[in-house]
């Protein structure tokens, strides 16, 4: 009887393992892709050598939108402007598995956040799974092998560069949705863009003089920041956003106006608002109007770029309306018939959320469905989708665009959503220790007050003193230190507000 040498036996065993190994593709190595990688590497299947994971990142390094780049591409590689800081305090923004360093400013600058990602990836040994400067060109389901054919090529100006095709069992889309500018369909805007009188905020980096009168459209976080900065370099700042009160401040230097109904003559700088009033003499317009969902690697037969038809019934095809991706079970899994829902996951589509924790929790749900496809009940998920549609329809009527815009919006809804995902995952994650902590909700509800007061501390030069040494205890004690700091900042805001009220009352009695 011939005995095989140990090396041959080991080779056969390795071949058996490789035959059973499942391959996971992650598209993007920004905040969501990194969080997804970390959770995959924590899984017992990965540790047992049964899973292999690769993240494809089109840019030269990890970080996604937080990796700076000049606004020379069309669209720019990132919309990140020079003064950008987080708009969520880092103790609740951080990945739950990895806090920011002690003493970090409560709303850190972009480069601090980028360093945080680098440290996170290094701490959890994620860099080895990331292929940078590699663009995913096409992702298509092959039913003959029940796998995804993923075609990639080096990032560059030509999509026809030599490509490579790899089979994957699971594709996780984590490419973000802050790349392709969303332009409002306002009549006349095209003429302003062509005349160089308007630009999307994706190209904005810092305040520059563009004339005495500047119009900023949109009041999301970037719209507020851009308007505040442009006030310093122009004589009149007009800030247009839906339901804005028609008010003038600082002697007319700042004007709040409602939604724009039409961009009129660009040379005269005239615009007409929905209330019928007009402004003239606008020298420049910055459009902080958001970004559209872009999944260019999914072919048209898998993803149609259009508004989905009204429901019920649930469409059998996946749609990208620019404002939302539909239909998705649990806002993650395509509920379609052309491929199994458990084999493709779209992460972090909801907005008005705390994004980093989302990546970790959603990925746990993805891996649950991947390992146990029957855990996803298509009938139940369809009912949930129809229920959400009816709720939004009651609010917006038959306005399908308004429904699409609101579909991924969460805000307070994010917390029970994350808890429900952990219940779906089950096991230890269904326990109370994995529920969103009460203190996170407490800070979330005070986020406007907290950020405004922190800006005041930054303005008067006291911010660094407030965070000195905070969090150095680490673990739960470090978290308590950060919570106590945030409560102190909120209390300071309340005290200052009370003092103003007292002073106003005294003035009124004089």
Automatic annotation (TrEMBL):
SUPFAM superfamilies: FAD/NAD(P)-binding domain (SSF51905). The keyword Oxidoreductase applies. One of its GO terms (molecular function) is N,N-dimethylaniline monooxygenase activity. Keywords: FAD, Flavoprotein, NADP, Oxidoreductase. PANTHER family: DIMETHYLANILINE MONOOXYGENASE. Belongs to the FMO family. This is FAD/NAD(P)-binding domain-containing protein. It comes from Phanerochaete sordida.
